[in-house]
Amino acid sequence: MKLKFQSPTGMHDILSEEQKYFKKIHDAVEEVAEFYGFKRIETPILEETDLFSRGIGLSTDVVKKQMFSFRTKGGDHLTMRPEGTASVIRAYLQNGMQSLPRPIKLWYFGPFFRYEKPQAGRFRQFWQFGLESIGEEGAVRDAEIVQVLYAILKKLRLKNIAIEVNSIGSKCCRPYYRKILVNYFKSRSSSLCANCQRRIKENPLRILDCKEEKCQRIVLQAPQTMDHLCRDCHQDFKEFLEFLDELELPYSLNPHLVRGLDYYGKSVFEIFSSSENKEEGQEEGSPALSKNALGGGGRYDGLAELLSTKKENDTPSTGAAMGIERIIGAMKKDKIKPSHKAKPQIFLAQLGGLAKRKTLKLMEEFRKARIPVLESLGRDSLRAQLSAADKAGAKYTLILGQKEALKGRIIIRYMSTGKQKEVDMEKIVKEMKKLCK
RNA sequence: GUGGCUAUGGUGUAAUGGUAGCACUAGAAUCUGUGGAGUUCUCAGAGCGGGUUCGAGUCCCGUUAGCCACCCCA
Fold first, then answer.
1. Which residues form the domain of A388?
2. What's the domain count of chain A?
3. Predicted pLDDT at A2
4. Same domain assignment for residues A254 and A106
5. What is the ipTM of this complex?
């Protein structure tokens, strides 16, 4: 098929089938987040490039090679947002939310952009929702975020949700731990994959997350962050786990969990949906259980300060984000159908110019009465209209012909039996309201 | 950024290198005021560019896109 135009690589139209899933997820997020006191915020899709490069970290993949950046005619450097947290903190600072009672709890839902090679569950334009809880420290806020994410997934009836948690320490202990880790890896660098040998310098924490088998073996023996936390961070993490226990959340410790964005510190977590791999056709040796990251988050205490020119008060914050398309993927694997709206049961058919004019007006009356109706105003033959009504699965067809229009009457046709009756035009909306109950 | 697989109407598919066919969908007629079946008709196809060959949907190369894996992440 040759098309003159095609959507850009990794960017897709979201058609009505998919919209049902989006709506279902959006509604679940809205309901749960609002219940927990989060307020909706929507930030621009474009931001100054520096907001991300400073906020997310210059050495991260996201900033180094995944941003859609460009220069405006006026010379500004803008970037299509690759994630939400930096924007939300910018909005917090710009709108003087420092003067609001803490914590400031916000949620968002929208499209994000990363220049990557698309594959399963990974697109260049993708949708996320996120939660940010700004201005209060304490593990209870981290636990609350996890709880809200979990509640949303549960509301969507997802099964097999797993949460992995870790603490990567903060300013006070991470540098020290990093040094120990570097030493450890250096002494064994010959057994690491090429990638990880490079990482020793650039981002040693990420080695913990490497999937190469030989690296995994080294990582197993590596010093763990948890053993090198300062007292503060240790206490904080302990409390975090206690809250999770109390909430009876299905979490497990993953000492190798590190997040890809620089602003994280202390508690971090990721949420997975695992599902049995039972695709049609025989899969060649794929694992019986596939684990899919739906989202993740953690604490980012220093970000507000980093993004501000003034001296900010301490703004300890925590948050998380989840990928909509990935949740949809998990829903499909779990065979969860998005509830679809009841289909309209009424079809309006018309014959002749006068009737056509009246039909358009009649539609408006049905709309005001909140009764959905279908039509086929473009077709003139009654046969074609009835056929369309049938295909649409209408229960009743209202037939307004020239004769009826002149008399101020209209015909109700019961599609299953073929019986018809004529009623006054004025009473039709009321009548149908009764029938459709 | 690296690698693997794939590419035929709107959709799903078929054709030892030799006339691009089928099904569904859509539109219409049969029936100019009455749907569901039948019949008939219509719209509509090789991603793009090269090469091999008398001849390419089929083989080769390139390219683009899609899917998948690595990487990274949501």
1. 346-432
2. 2
3. 67
4. yes
5. 0.84
